[in-house]
Amino acid sequence: MQPLSPTLKYAICIGGTLLIGALSGIATDSSVRTWYPTLEKPVFNPPNWIFGPVWTFLYVLMGIAAGLVWNSIHDKALIRKALSIYAAQLALNAAWSILFFALRSPAMALVDIVVLWIAIAACIRAFKPLHGTAALLLYPYLAWVSFATVLNLSIVVLN
């Protein structure tokens, strides 16, 4: 079997990450319009319209980072391990949307997002020796999830 081209690897990583994000969005759509507006939110809560563009941008950066690692010329076992951590944090990311919006449980989502933050940090650490730029591309994601953690905690406290 012929190896995948670098371009196809990028397409899989970016497209797959965006697909997970889109599926998470579908799972949250009705609650965003009905339940979420009824919650007490802190004064620093961004307007709803900002979340889609920010997450799309972050998912593209994440996908590029994963593509850089997949295309790196390092030991295949290290690449597999790093991409496994990436997949785990992506699953935790999707789980947060389901817990918070679909199940309407900000408290369970808070537990998830703390574990997600740890997984993103582990992913950055795993990506760094394989491709430094890939690790750097995940820092905006870590920053946004840090903000989202504070926002999630505030919603738990206020409600």
Structure description:
This protein has six helices and no strands. With 159 residues, the protein is mostly helical. It has one domain: Up-down Bundle (Ferritin), CATH 1.20.1260.100. Helix 4 runs antiparallel to helix 6. The longest helix has 28 residues. The mean pLDDT is 96.
Topology (elements, then pairings):
Layout: H1 6-33, H2 51-70, H3 76-102, H4 106-127, H5 132-137, H6 139-158
Helix pairs in contact: 1-2, 1-3, 3-4, 4-6
Structural class: mainly alpha
Number of helices: 6
The radius of gyration is 16 Å
Classify the beta-strand content into a percent band: under 5%
Distance linking N and C termini: 55 Å
The CATH architecture designation is Up-down Bundle
Number of strands: 0
CATH topological fold name: Ferritin
Please state the overall shape, judged from the principal axes of the Cα atoms.
Answer: elongated
Quick synopsis:
This protein has 159 residues and is mainly alpha-helical. It has helices spanning 6-33, 51-70, 76-102, 106-127, 132-137, 139-158. It is elongated.
List the defining traits of the structure above:
single chain, 159 residues, mainly alpha, Ferritin, elongated
